[in-house]
Amino acid sequence: MKRNLFTLLAILCVAPFISFAQGMLDQPVPVDAAVRMGKLANGMTYFIRHNEEPKERVSFYMIQNVGALLEEYNQNGLAHFLEHMAFNGTENYPEKGFLDYLEKNGVAFGRNINAYTSFNETVYNLSDVPSTREGLIDSCLLVLHDWSDFLLLTDEEIDAERGVISEEWRTRRNASFRMRSVWFPVVFEGSKWAERDIIGDLDIIKNFEPETLRKFYHDWYRTDLQAIAVVGDIDVDQVEAKIQELFSKIPAVENENPRPVFEIPDHDETKFVLATDKEATNSSIQIMIKHKATAPADKNIGYLRDDYIANLFNQMTRDRIQELLQKGNPPFINGGVSVGGFVRGYDAAYITATANPNMEDVGLKAIYTETQRLVRHGFTEGELNRAKVNLLTAMESAYKQRDKISNDQYVSGIQEYFLTGEPLTDAEFDWQFGQAILETISLADVNKMATDMLVDKNRVILITGPEEGVTHLNETDALAILSEVEESEIEPYEDTAEAASLIEEELPGAEIVSAKTLDELNAVEWKLANNATVVFKKVDYEKDQVNLKAYSPGGTSLFSTDDLQTASMVATFMDAFGVGDFDAIALKKMLTGKKVGLSVNIGDLSEEFNGSSTPKDFETMMQLLYLQFSNPRFDQEAYDALKSRYVAYLSNMANNPKKIMSDSISLIVTDHNERTKLMSATMFDEISFEKMEELYNDRFTDVGDFTFFIVGNIEEEVAKEMAVKYIGSLADSPREEDWVDHNVNMPKGTTEKKIEVPLETEKANVNVFVRQEMDYTAESNLKLQILKEILNLRYTEEIREKEGGTYGVGLGAASRKFPTARKTLQMVFDADPEKADHLKSILFREIDKIVENGPTQVDLDKVVLNMKKNREQAKEHNKYWLNVLHDEYYYGFNTDAKENFDDIVDAMTIAQVHEFAKKFYTGADIVDIVFLPKKAE
Predict the structure, then answer these.
(1) Going by C-beta distance under 8 Å and a sequence separation of 6 or more, which residues neighbour residue 680?
(2) For 308-336, what is each residue's pLDDT tens digit?
(3) Which DSSP category does 684 fall into?
(4) pTM recorded for the entire structure
(5) Which residues share a beta bridge with 287?
(6) How far does CA 427 lie from the centroid of its chain?
(7) What is the dihedral of CA 779, 780, 784, 785, to 10 degrees?
(8) At 777, is the secondary structure helix, strand, or coil?
(9) List of domains in the chain
């Protein structure tokens, strides 16, 4: 295989100088030789690959070539229902036996144990399973074995799951889902796609006979439609032997139904559909042009080359549209022209625009004009060259970090190979082939993609938006706009040249006045003559990555209430302004071929920089840092353009119940403090361009007040040189600052609210916040996380499974040191309005149980083991160490130290959690908000 690969690459390297031979395009794509694959006598396929990201972990997948399109009319929704049932009892693990077993081994339901159902497939996974624990590999293979053909599907478990599925149905019923039910039948007219939505028919979910589900299981969960994928830190030979022994015993289904292929009828005419909803917030325009995709058997070298062409096409169109949005008065809020996958068996070209209110005609005309500009004039050589360089940079970075390809990423490729015949290549091939094939792609090749894909056959115009208060395009007007654009004169795009360098002048730098080694952190600290502090640590878990973080105390706490709205938008607008002499468009071109980024932010208590780059682009990141600090750019035209887009975007948000609920929560949990500001179209009445410049310059003027952290795969001398040159050249100001406490707190005691919201779907949304003033320590922070995860187990069992009352309870936990040390626990879920109060009482009941008696040893052990496992995996990444350094300086202790994690969790007892829960919950401030559907008047 390797010999064939290098022969192919040798041919490709000379291809620019010869005619591109059709025979070469027809060659098959080499398959990753590290993937062991085979097919058992019963028709089941298996894939096995050794991988060590993360170390001592393995992921198991069961890939079923079975989805909602295979359902009969009386089974609508049962493919998804069956997915749920796979977790409710198998032959070897009755009830929820394997969930309990895996959780006791640090494998968490939801996070590591999950599944999904789509139109054409159902995929189950057991991820990040410890590979060194005795018997776990065998047990996980047994779970996959049972999923294949040995689900119990008892009447009792089926009936118990009806409630969970019904609540998932309720949770997913939003504006987008309802509008989709209108446009799906038009886009997919004449096909099975038009009749299914995966979640299914609620009446069927509640009332189907168990035998109907068992029939679907028998008909379609069968070995010839199944694949097993095992990827991780394992012995491939041993795992293969286990698979062959265990799975060969599963009998093949006799006289099986042929697995159908679902097609969408062609249509020469342009179809039109308008879908509206009371809860929709913006008018969206989409022209979708459907194309038959390449058949699996034909996904060869030519197909792979076309994929690179599509990637370049999408890069260039994205840049063009972004350039349009940076200027003047943008004709739409967001837009794009792209090509890509649609549904299995089909690709599509997408022409999209989010329109300004009551300006769908303007948006459609503008985005279609850009489309026609592409069709008539194509791209420029400059655009193509930049796109190639950027793609090569991304490919090179991926190749350098090939040891960080995760188990689940590998399985994703295996899954597509099994289901749709996508090429399954390795990192070496991707890098070598990518370099060679890009040399063969010409401007004519990319322009041909525009003329081939952007046609008028199989075209659908899709308009979605608010039901009230907006004038929508009709079919006649939309078609007339397309005709008008097609008949108009359109000038070609004019490209602009790039500048030579970011910084022209010589920089003075600054001396290091003191240096010290941080032995415990294996890092070094430098104090510069301008009073800046720089902390560096070399780590190379990600080989092609360097991260930067910096902070200075103050933030928006030093601003008046009147300035808060402006301050809240600084980070967003600075990104649109560019830097120094470069507007955002020129800067993007200047950074062609560089993988680098830097952002600024003004938080409540500090101002910050966050950046990342490759080692070779580290100096460019430092140059951006220098310019963003010393020569920030404030672009009035870019400000006006982005402001107009924001105002348009926010103008209809009042219709969105999620926005209503979010705003209500923000006001209530801050006790309606005057410093609580909400996003709305009118917020820009309080924002000014001049004030934005003033606030930014106030916060980013004193480098001596900043601490900088540099972590990544560069040498210490390089980091020192760049820090001295760029950070050292920044100005210090003779001022000392700190944040100010404005006493923004939750209301004292217990606050209960029931708020009616205009909802199209009958559902309640429950939100509970528990907050207590407590010391910020490593031990108390970990105890809060443990409490949260224990409650997650309890709520899954009691509210989701036993009650069937919600699709899931979401939990969040936060420990804060400044301005006041406090801890917060948040719980949120959707439910039937009639059951909301009862289910909410279970939230408090489970907390009360732990306050009174502590958790069970089983629950505590599950949580601690999973936390330790996740911690081990996190330590293998650069950003973990960046956060460790930041926390050492900001919070005052080393979160990586053994005494601040391992010693605490290893010694954690029921009594300790019990005591913490009492201290946290007793006398805590509680906000209890339930949103209910507004009753008809």
Answers:
(1) 650, 653, 654
(2) 999 999 999 999 999 999 988 999 999 99
(3) G
(4) 0.95
(5) 351, 461
(6) 23
(7) -30
(8) coil
(9) 35-247 (3.30.830.10), 271-402+415-486 (3.30.830.10), 512-727 (3.30.830.10), 750-933 (3.30.830.10)
